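Q: C-alpha cells for this one, please.
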Amino acid sequence: MRTADALQTDAPQLPPPTRTLRLDGPSVLAKRQEILAYFHQTFDLYDSLFDIIADERGFYVKAIPLRHPLIFYFGHTAAFFVNKLLADGQIDRRIDPSIEALVAIGVDEMSWDDLDEGNYAWPTVAELRAYRARVRELVSNHILSMPLTLPITWNSPAWVILMGIEHERIHLETSSVLLRQLPLDWVRDQPHWPVCEMARHDRAAVPANRLVPVAGGEIVLGKRDATYGWDNEYGERRVTLAPFEASALLVSNAEYLAFVQAGGYADPRWWTDEGDGWRRFAGARAPTFWVGDPESPDTLRLRLMTREVPMPWDWPVEVNALEAQAFCRWKAAATGRSVQLPCEAEWAALRARVPGDQPDWEVAPGNINLAHWASSCPVDLFPQGDGFFDIVGNVWQWTSTPISGFDGFAVHPRYDDFSTPTFDGKHDLIKGGSWISTGNEALASSRYAFRRHFFQHAGLRYVVSSYKEPALENPYETDEQVCQYLDFHYGAEHFAVPNFPKALAEIALRHAPDGGRALDIGCAVGRASLELARGFEHVDGVDFSARFIDAALQLIAQGSYRYTLPVEGELVDYHEVRLDPLGLGPEQAGRVKFSQGDALNLKPQYTGYDLVLAANLIDRLREPARFLEDIGRRIKPGGVLVLTSPYTWLEAFTPRANWLGGVRENGEAVTTYRALQLALAADFEEIAPPQDVPFVIRETARKHQHTLAQLTVWRRRS
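A: Here is the predicted structure, written as C-alpha cells:
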C-alpha cells in the first residue's frame, strides 16, 4: 500500500492549513490579532471558492432544485455577520437591508421532492462582491474595537464573530457540493483548488477491505476542549459498547460497485421505505457522482468540482445515508453478519485511536483541513489508528445516529435555530470530515447532521455490531398546553413560589396513611403522581387529556423530555426536564401507572384508595357534585381526599346551574368552600383548616399567571 509520507509538497497552491482558534490564551492583544487573521483567511478562502464559476449562469441556476442558487450562498455568509451582530446589539445599523433580508435564511428541505419554487430578485454578482467587501471592512474594524476578555465564552462579543467564521466554513463545504453539481462548462479549474492525481483505474488493483476488531467499553461523548463549538456539541452522553469490528478502509468505489452490479438499486429488500421512495423519485441506478452507465463500469467517470475523471476505483464512494444503509443491508445478507453503519459512539471509539486534534496538528493526519487536495484520494493512503485508514478525512462517514442534544444541552440564544430543527429523528450525523472540512468541522467534537437523502462529500465505513441506536422518541414538544404544563410541573420556580404539584404531594403525604394506594385524578403531566410515589406503594395518575398522559409516559420511559416555551411573539426558548435531578428515579416511576380517563366516568378498577388528590379539577368539570359523590365511594374508610381549586367557575367548563359555589341562593352568597362542607359532610370529616397554596404558570418570558388555590383535606368516615 502507498503511504502519505511524501505528500506534503504535492499541493503547494492550496491555502495555508487552518488552525481553529483556542478560546483561551495569555494575551488579549494576541488573541484579537488571531481572530482577525482567522476571519480574513476564512473570508478570502470563501471568495476563492466562487472563482471556480466560469459562467455567470452558475450563480443563478439551481444546481439542484432543493437548494437556493449559489448567488444566495455567496451573500448569505457575509449577511450572517451583520444579522447576528445587529441582533446581539454589537452594531446599530445595517449595511444593505434588502440584501440582508433576501439572503438571511437558507433551505432545509423536508423531503427530496419538496421543491422550493420561490422567485427571487437576486442581486448581481458585482453587487454582492461589493457588499462582501463592505462586510469585511465592518467586521475587521469591529474585531479590533470590540470588548474582549479571555477566555472567550458563549456570552462574549467575540463568540458571535467566531460563530460567523465557523458558519462561513460550513458553507465553504456545502457550496463546494453545489459547484460539483453545476454543468461542467460553467465551472473551471483553479490552481488553488488542485485535484489528487493518484488513482487506481484497474479494479483488480484496489486493496480489499477487511474487518478490524475494536474493544468495547464506556464512551463519553461531549465537547471538552477549549475551541469554538456549536451548541449541540456541549453536554454529555455515556454509551457502553460491546466489542465490535469495523472496516479498515472507507468503502471504495470498487467495493460499492459490487452492490450496484448485484442489482442493489433495483431490489427494494435493501431499502427502507424512506430510501425506496427516494430511489424511485430520483431514478437512482448508482451513486449520484458516477457519470455513465453502471452496467459498463469500465466507461464510468467521476464528477469532481470542476472536471470529470476516469473512475478512481480506489477513492471512497460518495453516497447519501439512504444508499449507505442499503449497502450495509445487502452486505449483511451476503455475509450473514450484522453489518451496519457505525453509531456516533462507535466512530468515537475509532477516533480515540488518532492522537491529537486539529489545533495541534503540525501536519494533518489525513486528507482533511485542505492540507492536500481539493478532492478525495485513495482509501489506503493515510493510515490512522493501528490498522485503520481515514478515520478522519477524505470523505465524511455516515452514522446510524440521528442527531439530538446531549444531557445538559442548551440552545445558544444567538443562533437558536441551528440545532433544534434537526432534532427530529430525520437528520443523521456525519463524522470524520472530508478533504474540505476546516475549522470546527475538522475537530473530533464536531457534530453535523443532514437529512438522509442529502448529498455531502460523504461516504461510509461499516461495522459488524449488535448495537442499536435508541429511537429518537422526543424531539422538542411544541404543543402549547403540554409545554406549559411540563414547565409548570417540572420547570424552574418563578418568583420564589414553590413547585405546586410537589407542594400538594407533600401536604397530602402528611395527612394520608403510610403506604397503600393513591389516585391522582387530573394528574396532567404527572409530577404530583411521582411525588406521591415516595410514600405510596401504588399510584394511579389519571387525566382526560391523552396528550398529557403521553408526555408523562414518555418522560418516565426516557427519563427526560424536551419542550419549547414562548418568549415573545413567535420566538421560543428550548427546555429539557430530567427526572434524576428531581430525585424521581425508577423507584418512584415503577410505582405509578398513568392512564387516560374521565373523572366523571371512571372505570370500576379505580377504587380502594387510601388517598385521592384532585388538584384544580372541580371547577373544570361539567358536574362537580356528581364527581364528589362518586369519588367518595372509591376511597377506603379512613382514607383521605385532598381537593384544591382556585374556584374559577366558568360556563365554558361548567353550566352555571352546576357551580358548587360562587353564586347566590335565596339572596345569600354561597362560597365553594361552604358548598364542599355541605356536599361532603355525610361521608367525610374535615381534618385540617383550609389553606391557600400559590402557583405560577409561565405564559411568556414576561407574562406569568399567579394564582391561589384553596386546599382542603377530608377523611372518609369509618
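A few notes: The domain at 211-285+314-464 is CATH 3.90.1580.10 (paralog of FGE (formylglycine-generating enzyme)). DSSP finds 17 helices and 26 strands in the chain.
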